[in-house]
Amino acid sequence: MTSFPLPLTELMGHWGSYVVYALIGIAFGMTLESAGFGNSKLLAAQFYFKDMRVFKVMFTAIIVAMTLIFLSTSIGLLDYNLIWVPPTYLWPGIVGGLIMGVGFIIGGFCPGTSLVGFATGKVDAIFFVMGVLTGIYIFGETINTYAVFFDSSYMGRFTIPELFNVSYGSVVLGIVVAALLIFIMAQKVEAAVNKQPIKPFPGWSKPAAGALIAMAVAALLIGQPDNDDRWQSIAAENQAKLDGRLVQIAPAELLNLMNDSKLKIVPLDVRKEQYYNQFHLQGAVHVPLECVLDKAEEFQFELANTVFVIMSNDEVEATEAWKILKAESVPNVYILEGGINNWLDTYASESFTNDNKIRLRELDQLAYRFDAATGSRHPAAEPNPNVLDLNYEPKVILELKRAPVTGGCG
Amino acid sequence: MSNQSRAKPYMNPYLAGTLLGIVLFLAYFITGSGLGASGGLNRLLVFVQNAVNPEHIDQVPYLLKMAGGSTNPLDSWIVFLTVGTIFGGFFSGLLGRRVKFETNKGPQINNATRWIMAFIGGGLMGYGARLARGCTSGQAMSGGAVLSVGSWAFMFAVFVGAYALAYFFRKFWN
């Protein structure tokens, strides 16, 4: 729906996109080093309340980035669905975090800060980096002994607004205000521990804090786009694709794709349960139309070679579902041309179509009568692709996936 | 000492935090991914392991994902980010005249003790970062900014772990 994040691989090629990451890395390293994070003594001082630099830098960075991100998404400049939100594995995260906290107070760095310490010749950082590599090595060798725990308490892409069932804007504003209050406290705590007068904030910090609050309020008032807003922003281009029949694929193309081992085809059946029970394609995933939006998030996690082909009895519900998924930026979504009815016209035996045709029916109802809930046991559920050689115009073009499948720590 | 007196002081933490926040925002805005560090180190390590003993990689599923068959473990954005971070730290250190071989430690311990501590702490950090699927940059800061529940839980755990043991290690730092 939006132009950001950029489809980097498409724009710059596989290796070209890495140049951007290297530049971001340079900016990251420069800010970390300027902040004093190459110095383990300064980092450790955080835990004795002498210099709360770690806390100040980290939370300033979080509230600045968070506010800019959610203001951008609220005005439709950035697509939240296409940015990497680390999936929650609650307990492995907490246990790993505790181990890291212990490592922090013993070693005096975290992995990112040790890199800039290493780069500026700090000998303790060099030992720390060697330690990190050793720790990672041991992890790789031992993880198989408790992989069940490593993969436990998985909650997917789960956000704080979803946890408390409140809007994104109010969480953003709440965190900004809380962080600013904690900064005021941090100045006082430092002064008390060091027995020195309270250090004033720099002159620019008050207007900057005001600007952050104003942006957070703006994000709250505008609100995050819902599925309908998201569709409206892409409607012009995508309605043309629907009208031009560019995304409706012939039954023969679907059948061919289903037998293509390089692709993962998800036949997405959005009909009511009664229809699904009567007949569906072998391997069809049943997601009734009203549940499609909830599933969109999960579909983002599918592999890059996944193609979704949506089907209803004709095309009405399938088209609705297509719009929903398209608006949520799910890549590679198509519609089965003519729906299940057309599929049966194409692949069911002549005796079946002659005997069971329903003459009078409404749009998007099943055109054939089934005496029992045959599900996918009906012969037309899995036709042999080699028997009928049908001509069709191929329409599926695999898009490069834009939503990152890895992020944070790769 | 003369060298140290010429070193420029570190940036005001709120200014550094603001700049870091803008870098983090741009990382998300342009690429869709946040920042990270431990993932890059992981892949550098796997690259070496793969060069030394490729058969072993094929026996460990966790390593196989990064270097199985013809997969090049260095063929990942995080590796470039990590290498960039090292260069960026070096440039910034040069500009601030802070590039210098030295060991930062508390006054009560010697260099060798500090180095052993750094190695052990690093080991715990590296292990914990893989278990938590991210480090302070990739999980706590990046995930925190996009409001992931797991990232916030992780962040609190790191601070809890460090503060809980800070008292016992006070001699090493003060």
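Chain B touches chain A through 129 residues (CB under 8 Å).
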